[in-house]
Amino acid sequence: MTNYRPLKIATRIVEPKDLVQREETVKAFYDAIGDDYHALHEGRFCDEILEYFIFYFLPKPSIKVLDLGGGVGRFAIPLAASGYDVTIYDISERMLAAAQKIANEQKVRLEYQKGSVVNLDAIASDSFDSAICINSVLNYCEDHVRAIAEVNRILKPNGTFIGSVNNLFAYAASQEMKEGNLETFVESMETGNRHIQWGDIAHGHVTHDFTREELSSALYTAGFRNLSVLGIFNLLGKYFNSEDVLKKINKERFFQLQLEFARKTQYINNSDDFFFVCNK
Questions:
Q1: Within a 10 A sphere around the Cβ of 183, how many other Cβ atoms?
Q2: Whether the Cβ atoms of residue 154 and residue 92 lie closer than 8 Å to each other
């Protein structure tokens, strides 16, 4: 059984006021849910798939890994438990406090640092072997181009950058079209931007979703190379996590099929998220 119950998402066209202090609204959102985030999201099947690919592509343990927007440590904690030297970097004090509590309970050692991915000035250049940036962190950045350039700066030569971002068409089609929000869909497809409101949480925020071409261009422009993009949620979608569905399918077989189809280039654009791996 899983504790995960997805919150209902409401979206609308982005207004100019939404772009003012954009990252402050993201911080306010995660501060508001920091104490409950782990309980709300525990057992998400999509995170099992993400974890598999993170471990698959990371170099061997003992290297220094920076988990950007690492939140409550969903990926940092298993990495640290496996021998990686992990620092969580997050904009929300509440999320970092929750991560520290969970890590202490599991007797896992992590380093913690507060800040925005757009500004990594507190981190020396060429200081980490790898960086991960999972689950929409780049989507929520005020300036994703600068954020990606900052990641390149702090990585050692040949360092590995692993991340995932929302696929613009998949999210706009699944959320705007299904709700009949045609004008929001058109605006989202033109700008990449949407304002999202999660359940009854007071603080909504802006997300910028990516086409595969925009993501690739931003990574190459920042100086990354050897880019691979996978479609890791191109079968049932990222948040299908319904108990009814899981009762009907062989979970282990589905997991293996998703790993297989993630690598099929003709289906990458069908995925809710783009998962990427590249080197400095």
A1: 10
A2: no
Supply the DSSP string of 23-86, one letter for each residue. HHHHHHHHHHHTTTHHHHHTT-HHHHHHHHHHHHHSPPTTSEEEEET-TTTTTHHHHHHTT-EE
Enter the tokens of residue 167: 């696929």
- Helix/strand/coil for 227: strand
> Domains in the chain, please, with CATH?
9-279 (3.40.50.150)
Give tens-digit pLDDT for 161-218: 999 999 999 888 777 777 777 888 888 889 988 887 766 655 677 889 999 999 999 9
φ, ψ dihedrals at 209, nearest 5°: -95, 155
With 0-12 / 13-18 / 19 or more C-beta atoms within 10 angstroms meaning exposed / middle / buried, residue 107 is exposed
pLDDT for residue 223 is more than 50: yes
Q: Distance between CA 149 and CA 116 in Å, rounded? A: 13
Which of these ranges, 2-16, 69-83, 103-117, 157-171, has the smallest mean pLDDT? 2-16
What 3-state DSSP class applies to 225?
strand
Secondary structure element (H or E) that encloses residue 230, with its range: strand 225-230
The pLDDT, as a whole number, for residue 1 is: 40
Radius of gyration of the chain (CA): 18
Q: pTM of the full predicted structure?
A: 0.90
d(CA 191, CA 207): 11
- Res 24: pLDDT: 82
CA angle 204, 209, 214 (to 5 degrees): 155
In what side-by-side order are the strands of the sheet with 193-198? 9-12, 193-198, 205-208
